[in-house]
Amino acid sequence: MPFTSLASMGGGGAGWQFNPALMYLSESTTSSGSTVTRNRFLFDLGVGYKLNSPIYIGALYSYDNLTTASSSTTQDTYASYGPSFGLQSDNFFMTFIYFVASQYDITTSSGTASYTSGNGYQFSFGYLFMAGPQFAVGPEINYRSLHYTNYKSASGAIASADYTYTTLLPYVALRFYF
User: Fold this and answer.
1) Contact status, residue 146 vs residue 153, Cβ threshold 8 Å
2) What mean pLDDT, rounded, does the chain reach?
3) Which domain holds residue 80?
């Protein structure tokens, strides 16, 4: 749907929204009798207000956890939050999120190391199908880029960093209207 068409539609009525989006991946590989299992769980929790126009204003918390298990276990966790701004029709939506803060923790048997002083952005695109009078569900694609400038090792040593994490992932989007 072209932008001009979205803008002219108005996108339905005004009101508050709760916008969770979820994704879960699991994979396992075995080589020479050694198995590696990866489980990844991601969710975005958004809340915002949709104006009578197609404009949406809100905030989002994003969580991304990857657990890798073989002879030892490693857990990578990204947590970010920030304001969001977007356009919505009755079904189609596109949202920009600026993450004002983000942290990446790497937990192993020797402790937790962290990348801090992070920020970044996300673009979300999706299409919703009404499943009830105040509930919708549909596919969503998120492009996310996070950048970190500080690193703290598991032993407590602090150093500057230049670490960027970028993903393009599908989600199942839910929307509750109030």
Assistant:
1) no
2) 93
3) 3-26+35-177
Instruction: For Cα atoms 66, 95, 55, give the angle at the middle one, nearest 5 degrees.
Output: 155
128, 148, 21: which is closest to 84 by C-alpha?
21
How confident is the model over 24-83, as pLDDT tens digits? Answer: 999 999 999 999 999 999 999 999 999 999 999 999 999 999 999 998 999 999 999 999
How many domains would you assign to the chain? 1
Are 9 and 47 in contact by the 8 Å Cβ rule? The answer is: no
Quick check: 65 and 37 in contact, CB under 8 A?
no
Do 64 and 31 touch, CB atoms closer than 8 A? no
Residue 83's CATH number = 2.40.160.20
